[in-house]
Amino acid sequence: MESSLSESVQQLVRPGKCVDVYYPDPQTAQKQCIRTTQNTRYVQSFANLTGGSSVLTIPPANGIQDILIIMELPALAPGAAAGLGLSRGWGYAAIKTVSFRYGGSSQYFLSGQQLLQNALRKCPNGSSRDDLLSLGGDAQTAATLVAGPQRAYVWLSLPHTIPSAEGKLPPLPSDLLTTQIQITCELFPPSAIFSNLAEVGAAVPNAYSFAEFQVQQVQMENRGDALAARVDMTQNALSYPIEFSQQEVVIPLANAVGQSVSLTGFRSGECKSISVWMTKDSDTAGAVKNPFKWYAPEDVTMTYAGEVYARFDKGSGALWNLVNGRLSPGVQDLDLGSAAGVITITTPRIDKWLELPFSQSFDPLTAHSFYMAGKSITNGIVNLTFNMPAATPADTDYKLHVAYHYNAVLTFSQGTCEYVL
Asked: Residue 91 phi/psi, 5° resolution?
């Protein structure tokens, strides 16, 4: 629509197209083409409640969005709970690995530690990060363990999922597959996640009282809108952009303030960023377990082929991550301690990590609709130097956790799909 007013100097010199933001206009309005409904009715119980592997199979029919795991531990008798406790996020701590396969695609794995870190880094704000960790199982002491059954709700961070309506991907189109989607979750036994001071009468449950998968599906109102009903998918392919996170690499660290490690195992493709965080074995090996007490390295320098791509001096990485994204890399947690033979919740703390980018900064919640190039690591080695956190002693039991994140596309054709990195 032509404007009757003359243009200003700014209208003349600024780049961009003219958009009417006064009246409703097709350029500023969008609407859903395919009418759909959403439901969370598909559930499947775990086959093993004492630990071990359970498999979720999703038949190819609808669009697949988020997948949750609901876990419950039984209420304990007062005498049985003496000296016991659970850390915040104990549902994630209960997961050893999760593997996923879309139809006939390759199968990939994520650890419980990586599952949580990947979920937190995708959250749109700090409140949702804190809530996601708390909903994953709140911290418990003997007093609350006897008050009733304890529940944890674990959101699975898979390539097609975002933990918010903000930036959520379209549903994974399982209607284009001829074989089922398979998610496998391997649990630790309950004894592995409880803090236990070995008081007389303490009795850790030998099984979870309940565990199930729950799937959110998007269903078309008219099956004639399905792509396979309109296009020959034996001759065509659908590209579904995702971010692919490779299974974490865990590197034991030497007893030294200054560290130098070589990162290897990169896949062929464009690496967008690298997540790094540190844990200490002593935080989980003793009677009191704090599995997500994460430490961020300081004075980090990441180089590839002799060129520096990330340099975060004096702990400045948190600010760089904030200004290049939305949030500083951390989540509110609670420390478990012990006093007089009982588990106590001591001071709050922040679990920290760092993101080391290769890709140009852009809103990560819209990255699925706007391609930003990553870096091809052709010789397969990235060098990382850093110092241990200044506030922690130079212990000998630190481990560095490293996860690589890639630009990727799932291509659907001929009843199956596969990753293209």
From this structure: -65, -40
Query: Is 20 among the domain residues?
Result: no
User: What distance lies between CA 105 and its chain's CA centroid?
Assistant: 20
Between CA 277 and CA 31 the distance in angstroms is 42
In this structure, what DSSP letter does residue 318 have? Answer: H
Residues 6+ apart with CB under 8 A from 188: 51, 93, 94, 95, 96
Q: Find the domain containing 325 and state its range.
A: 37-420
Report CA Rg, the chain: 24
Could you tell me the CATH number of the domain that includes residue 186? 2.70.9.10
How many structural domains does the chain have?
1
Q: How many CB atoms lie within 10 A of CB 148?
A: 10
Query: Cα-Cα-Cα-Cα dihedral of 197, 388, 334, 142, to 10°?
Result: 0
Q: Report the C-alpha gap between 8 and 39 in whole angstroms.
A: 50
Q: CA dist 193 to 52, 86, 146, 222, Å?
A: 14, 7, 17, 46
- Alpha carbon distance, N-terminus to C-terminus of the chain: 43
Q: Give every strand in the sheet of 307-312, ordered side by side.
A: 258-263, 382-387, 298-304, 307-312
**Cα 308 from Cα 18, distance rounded (Å):** 41
68 near 251, Cβ under 8 Å? no
For residue 18, tell me if it sits in a domain. Answer: no
The phi, psi pair for 323, rounded to 5°, reads -75, -20
Residue 129 belongs to a domain: yes
403 neighbors 117 (Cβ within 8 angstroms): yes
What pLDDT digit, counting tens, does each position of 355-388 carry? 999 999 877 566 557 888 999 998 889 999 999 8
Residue among 363, 389, 360 at smallest CA distance from 374: 360
| 8 A C-beta contact, residue 91 and residue 112 | no
- pLDDT digits 0-9 by tens, 85-131: 999 999 999 999 999 999 999 999 999 999 999 999 999 999 999 99
Residue in the block written with tokens 């199982």:
137
β-bridge partners, 45: 212
Residue 20 has pLDDT above 90, yes or no: no
Strand partners, 5: none
**pTM, two decimal places:** 0.92
pLDDT at residue 50 tops 80: yes
